[in-house]
Amino acid sequence: MNKVLVTIKVIRLNEEYEVFLPVNKKIADIICMLVKSLNELTNGVFPLTYNRLLYDIDQNIFYNTELSIKEAQIDNGKKLILI
């Protein structure tokens, strides 16, 4: 499988999104993609700041941004917070 389906909660917007993430991409690249998309969706309300992290709600951990989705063992159904 090339992608996983996760739920990402964006606290700043008080919204949740279901997103397919490519397993071969680094988490830093995923965060960049998410920030750009959220900025565009909100017409600039969500700021273009890339020093954000992904937090796993169930495991209570922050993911290393240098790992790929596969290396971080992020699977279908994960609930993440974009901080």
Walk me through this protein's architecture.
- By secondary structure, the protein is of the alpha+beta class.
- It has one domain (3-82): Phosphatidylinositol 3-kinase Catalytic Subunit, Chain A, domain 1 (Ubiquitin-like (UB roll), Roll), CATH 3.10.20.
- The chain has one helix at residues 27-41, and strands spanning 3-10, 15-22, 54-56, 61-62, 79-82.
- The chain has a 5-stranded mixed beta sheet with strand order 2-1-5-3-4, with helices on one face.
- Strand 1 (3-10) and strand 2 form a beta hairpin.
- It starts with a strand and ends with a strand.
Short account of what is shown:
The chain has one helix and five strands; from the N terminus they run E-E-H-E-E-E. It is α+β, with helices and mostly antiparallel strands.
How is the secondary structure organized here?
Layout lengths: L2 E8 L4 E8 L4 H15 L12 E3 L4 E2 L16 E4 L1
Parallel strand pairs: 1-5
Antiparallel strand pairs: 1-2, 3-4, 3-5
Return the average pLDDT rounded to an integer.
95
Domain count: the total is 1
Q: How many β strands by DSSP?
A: 5
Q: CATH topology, anyone? A: Ubiquitin-like (UB roll)
What strand order characterises the main sheet? Answer: 2-1-5-3-4
Low-confidence parts: none
Helix content: 10-25%
Rg (CA only): 12 Å
What name goes with the CATH superfamily? Phosphatidylinositol 3-kinase Catalytic Subunit, Chain A, domain 1
Structural class of the secondary elements?
alpha+beta
Number of helices: 1
The CATH first-level class comes to Alpha Beta
